[in-house]
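Morning!

As promised:
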Amino acid sequence: GNSVTQMEGPVTLSEEAFLTINCTYTATGYPSLFWYVQYPGEGLQLLLKATKADDKGSNKGFEATYRKETTSFHLEKGSVQVSDSAVYFCALSFDQFYFGTGTSLTVIP
Amino acid sequence: GAVVSQHPSRVICKSGTSVKIECRSLDFQATTMFWYRQFPKQSLMLMATSNEGSKATYEQGVEKDKFLINHASLTLSTLTVTSAHPEDSSFYICSGRGGGELFFGEGSRLTVL
């Protein structure tokens, strides 16, 4: 079946630290991959996506590369800010979306 | 990007009453919308897939008579929580699919007293 596994949180980082949130997937085929972000009390917003192997999605300093050989789509940011504090969801899509459990990130000044 | 508007954002109701949540796609036509439920500090649980002009498809374990979904037009889907009880208190999120992406509403926090 199709599924997404995300690293468990919560993650707490100091401002300007490097961020990695691991995401691996299991899929019967080649799905599109997404990262969504949820700020406190809000719905989800698309952060970035990649639709095929070796694609790199990027937005707001965040990046993730679609790695077919390792079935991974790890989220990275070189220097996090307090405003990045949120819950991050990895997802894959075929006919429907499959979400990971979410990783809570808190960035402290 | 596309916009999905959800209303109300917060609602408090008494046990036994019904509550309707609206989900509108503002700048695209969504033949399919999805309703999720999110418990505190947990992931999204897909409740049902709402198809314009036809019956919704419910996920296993979701009571279709309690969570009524109507998708009357290409831009509007509604979720009605009937005879709400405190255990129905949760954050409900809708989404519409457009161009291969999912666009989410802002979410509705339901509190049943």
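Chain B has a mean pLDDT of 90.

Hope this helps with the figure draft.
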